[in-house]
């Protein structure tokens, strides 16, 4: 006895293939599609195996069911519309299973970097850290309570930058910003990176500290003493520029900054290239490209080897500028998202539709 709920009113109950079996094919196909698109959204290994096992098992079961149904109803008139359903489901489920296992799942878990360019109207100055490696005697010995900061050219009589409107920070503006050296009263000895301990000074850039014009000059000075003998080179230090929104520790840990060695006894020009990176972990910040050039001093006045060679502390001057407000943005994303899987599945489905339309005989109906 046939169940009325499984009959399709538009087709005779005794058809070849069976309308009830065709309905079963459609239900199984829809269930498989739900599982497939769930896997597209989650893209984890457990779901991948569920899709592979479900796809293989249902394909085999439906194939056996189709062959048995056609054999039992071989004496009945063939209905091309139902044959189209059989062929469409039997071809689509194994096709989608293979595509998910070999194409979609790998791309759902592959990171790619997408690049774009734009221009910004202004930029917040980066924070700058100056490092002295504790176990390297040829590096300058940083001194606290002396570091300086200027916007524009050196002018100790200029007003403090924090008293001015940030919109006025342009080529003709001169102001002082010494207080933005976070630890100007002392050198911090506790930063450790890659198994090495550093002493450091930090210039912290607040949100209002803007660069509104390309090539506008930020001048930083920090002071040091040096110990020179025949076995040491001219004093060196390391600098790092990082996005103030991250903080120094996080900028190093997430790869948004790195140390660059400089000749401390001179003037170092630092040109900042604007690179904005979106990481896959959700971190988004500037990763500045530093272009360094230096002009060394002719002599060293801070050699502490003896009283005869020491005059007063040396200083390193950093001339920092942003040559251009053109910005490159790098975004880390998956090679394929769940919407891309749906679009790809739709394009392949149109192919299987054409094949089923042809093989079922519907293409030849008058």
Mean pLDDT across residues: 86
Which percent bin holds the helix content? 25-40%
How many H/I helical runs?
5
Cα gyration radius (Å) = 35 Å
Strand fraction band?
25-35%
**Uncertain ranges:** none
Structural class: alpha+beta
Question: What name does the CATH topology of the largest domain carry?
Answer: Acid-sensing ion channels like fold
Distance, first to last CA: 35 Å
Helix-strand string: HHHEEEEEEEEEEHEEEEEEH
Shape: elongated
Number of domains: 2
Specify the biggest β-sheet.
Answer: 9 strands, mixed
CATH top level of the largest domain is Mainly Beta
**Number of separate strands:** 16
CATH architecture title of the largest domain: Sandwich
Structure report:
This protein has 366 residues and is an alpha+beta fold. The protein has two domains: 11-110 and 336-364, no CATH class; 118-331, Acid-sensing ion channels like fold (Sandwich). It has five helices and 16 strands. The chain has helices at residues 19-42, 45-72, 80-108, 248-253, 338-359, and strands at 111-119, 123-124, 127-133, 141-151, 175-176, 188-193, 196-203, 210-211, 218-225, 236-242, 260-263, 266-278, 284-286, 289-296, 314-321, 326-334. Strands 1, 4, 5, 9, 12, 13, 14, 15 and 16 form a nine-stranded mixed β-sheet that branches. A hairpin with a 2-residue loop joins strand 6 and strand 7 (196-203). The longest helix has 29 residues, at 80-108. It is elongated, with a radius of gyration of 35 Å. The mean pLDDT is 86.
């Amino acid at each position: 006895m046939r169940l009325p709920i499984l009959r399709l009113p538009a087709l005779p109950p005794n058809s070849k293939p069976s309308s009830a079996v065709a309905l079963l094919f459609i239900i199984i196909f829809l269930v498989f599609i739900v599982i497939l698109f769930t896997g597209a959204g989650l893209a984890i290994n457990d779901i991948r195996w569920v899709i592979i096992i479900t796809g293989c098992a249902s394909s085999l079961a439906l194939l056996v069911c189709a062959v048995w149904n056609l054999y039992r109803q071989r004496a009945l008139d063939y209905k091309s519309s139902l044959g189209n359903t059989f062929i469409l489901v039997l071809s689509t489920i194994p096709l989608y299973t293979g595509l998910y296992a070999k194409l979609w799942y790998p791309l759902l878990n592959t990171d790619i970097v997408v690049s774009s360019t734009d221009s910004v109207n202004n930029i917040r100055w980066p924070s700058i850290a100056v490092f002295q490696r504790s176990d390297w005697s040829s590096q300058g010995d940083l001194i606290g309570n002396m570091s300086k900061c200027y916007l524009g050219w050196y002018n100790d009589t200029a007003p403090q930058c924090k008293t001015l409107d940030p919109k006025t920070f342009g080529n003709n503006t001169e102001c002082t910003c010494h207080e933005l050296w976070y630890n100007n009263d002392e050198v911090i000895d506790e930063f450790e990176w890659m198994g090495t301990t550093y002493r450091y000074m930090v210039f912290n850039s607040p949100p209002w500290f803007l660069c509104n014009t390309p090539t506008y000059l930020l001048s930083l000075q920090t002071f040091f003493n040096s110990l020179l003998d025949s076995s040491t080179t001219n004093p060196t230090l390391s600098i790092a520029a990082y996005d103030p929104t991250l903080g120094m520790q996080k900028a190093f840990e997430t790869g948004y900054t790195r140390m660059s060695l400089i000749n401390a006894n001179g003037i170092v020009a630092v040109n900042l290239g604007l690179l904005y990176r979106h990481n896959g972990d959700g971190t988004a910040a500037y990763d500045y490209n530093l272009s360094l050039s230096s002009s060394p001093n002719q002599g060293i006045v801070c050699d502490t080897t003896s009283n005869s060679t020491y005059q007063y502390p040396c200083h390193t001057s950093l001339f920092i500028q942003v040559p251009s407000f053109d910005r490159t943005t790098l975004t880390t994303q998956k090679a394929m998202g769940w919407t891309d899987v749906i679009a790809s599945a739709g394009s392949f489905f149109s192919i299987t539709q054409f094949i089923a339309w042809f093989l079922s005989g519907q293409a030849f109906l008058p």
